[in-house]
Amino acid sequence: MSGMELVAELKGHTEPAWCVAWNPTRPLLASCSTDKSVRLYTYRFPPSSSSTDVAVPIFTFLTEIPTAHKRTIRSIAWSPSGRTLVTGSFDSTVGVWEQLDERDEGIERSGAMQANDEGEDGTGEWECVTTLEGHESECKSVGYSSDGALLASCSRDKSVWVWEVQPDSDFECISVMMEHTQDVKTLAWHPKEEVRYFDLPSPILASASYDASILLFADDPDADWGPFQKLQPSLPAVDPTMASGLNSQDEQMSLAGDEAKPSSADNDDKNDEFTVPALKDPETIWSLAFSPCGMFLASGGDNGGIRIWARGLSWTDSQSSSELDRDEDDLGRLASTGGDGRILIWQVRKTSETILSSHLSSPVPKIIATIVGLQERAHEIHDINSVAWCRRSVPEEEDASSPGHARAVKMQQRTRQLLATAADDGSVKVWRAT
Amino acid sequence: MSDPINANPTVIDTSQLPTRLGKGSRELKPCDKLVLKILNLSLLKPADESAESDDQIPDLMSDVDSESTDDELEGADNEGIDSQEIFDLISTISDPEHPLTLAQLAVVNLEDIQVSDNAGAISEVSVKITPTITHCSLATLIGLGIRVRLERSLPARFRIRILIKEGTHQSENQVNKQLNDKERVAAACENEQLLGVILQMLSTCK
Fold first, then answer.
1. Which of A68, A211, A219, A321 is a plausible cystine mate for A202, CB 3.0–4.6 Å?
2. What total of structural domains would you count in chain A?
3. Can you tell which superkingdom this protein's organism belongs to (chain B) (predicted)?
């Protein structure tokens, strides 16, 4: 089984590449590395195949941002507008990068290479508009909230910071949360803003740590940002006592089923290779990803296991519930990768069965994850550090009948099978799920 | 703290000889180890040392270099890497505290090295270290030194696992977790002060 094909191999980093990030509004792919640089690639669809959905884009190196980071750039993230790039570095700082407007600045476009479907490109010079300082040791992950109003960063110093994004590239730290007891490895913002946990809607931020736990944070209108739940693989959901606005167990996330396990029908010959290892010791949680509907959270552990967490049904407000209904059973695809050099694509489905056990306050749907794509040795013998789906956004405010809207919809459809990976050999690869 | 560490290298340099001797005759390794220990307990012989290092060091280096190249190219010259070779790479690392090598202190032992070498595919090396005392605060540093040595010497296909030998350290799990956290190791290797100490430890290897 493969289920995916190589679209582009992008070499250039001289040291391990740690993270890849797709720009949500423009045809740009960014990667970062121990070599302290960010590399930007652009892509375009060849005109001949413009009418088909299976068109394969052509990737071209665009520019390198040398950055002023003094150590490894561990993480990069785009703002939802696609205008701002943030870099989280082992030098403990977060860099914020914006592009000088090439029209105003009169920076010339260098040939047809940068031309693309939307008449936008990344050739204008990227400059550091601000550097966020505050972490005491390596910054491990950075990310924007779904509406771009907040930025979060985390560090080996055990803290999670939430920054408010203000006009003119100004960032104000509004919270420093120290609830993890170890290195905070990664962050994930909930994909929707209408999440209602306290009385008022609040964005939800998840963080995962070396301390083997996942914390879920929200903005409590009566207090400050704080954790409202702790998730620990292998253990029942635990309700921490910090948040004041909490009432009862009605509002908990819950572990759905045991673990994501592939169905044996899809890989008879290799079934044993895909069993999720038992959790002997508390293990570092390296990665987090919310499902597009926001009802599920996947976490990747140190021993190669993936766990999928479900919201308790009572946790959601009416809007989200209807979202769940509309989504039917298809929760989307989950891509995973790791030190074994494999990329796996899982089709995740919700079944009509529910799970209710003593530690769950409400039933959660049972999940089935089936492997639909497998690439062995995706970067030959090298560790793969990052995998990211291309997720082009369609501006909600825009008139649905406008040409811009139609272009964005088309671009979203044409790019939704694309994913990128970054590896220890410094290379970035782009794949298309088939 | 910094004085002893800086003072070590000269002493370690003289103790380098016996371990090199061991590398010369691989089949007799366990015996050689004993001989080395005895030699080191007695007086060191600078004259022998210089003779040996002239002979042995270039050989070792070219060995490692050519192998790593071959493997990356998936070349036919596929000798494979065994635990003896791993031992030879790490046995002469200096202890950060004592003017002795890790082999001399029995921190690394041939029987605690496991290699599963799949030519051209992802392979694994696991090294279990035995700290000299169960509360040795330098266990992490020693482990890091071994990891850096192996990462720099072995072909990229090797995944390196450094573990504390079961029951030999009171914080076994914590040390193991740190030593095998790729991100922390990468960050540690960017810490110039720490890297300086590690390079001192490794200076007796070359």
1. A219
2. 1
3. Eukaryota
**B52 and B146 belong to one structural domain:** no
Distance CA A270, CA A2 (A): 13
Query: What ipTM, to 2 d.p.?
Result: 0.82
Q: Nearest by CB to B173, from A137, A183, A281: name it.
A: A281
Confidence (pTM)? 0.80
Q: Are B122 and A210 inside 8 Å of each other by CB?
A: no
Mutate to test the interface with A, among B117, B177, B179, B193 (most CBs of A within 10 A): B177
B97-138 pLDDT per residue, tens:
888 999 999 999 999 999 999 988 999 999 999 999 998 889
**B170 found inside a domain:** yes
pLDDT digits (tens, 9 = 90+) for A342-366: 999 999 988 888 777 666 666 777 8
Residues B67 and B97 in one domain: no
Total beta-carbon pairs less than 8 A apart between chain A and chain B: 43
- Using a CB-CB cut-off of 8 Å, the residues of chain B touching A382 are 156
